[in-house]
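Annex B. Sample input.
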Amino acid sequence: MAHFAEIGEDNRVLRVIVVANERNLDADGNENEVFGAKFCRDLLGGTWKQTSYNNSFRKRFAGLNFTYDSEKDAFIPPKPFDSWVLDESTLDWNAPVAYPTDENDYIWDEPTTSWKLRE
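Annex B, continued. Sample output.
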């Protein structure tokens, strides 16, 4: 099965749907995103981009409220906290302070911008 993400005007993912593989094939039976996106657009309207359940393209599987970056041709997850910064090479959000390396379990505390022991 193929998966397609609907992209809103602000490049946010509005929804992700499953499309039968045969809807994504050209006349020679080769997979081609153009045909799956057209199927989605004809059926539901909107703008559609294929997303990979096993993360083989566009960096990661799209989810609700992810952002599609057309320059990087990748889906970026929502920013988890205001203080976190996007790593432009990995497209992952990073805390301004590294996660502690001991064996304890921590959670992020945004008001203090630090890691706190999970209670």
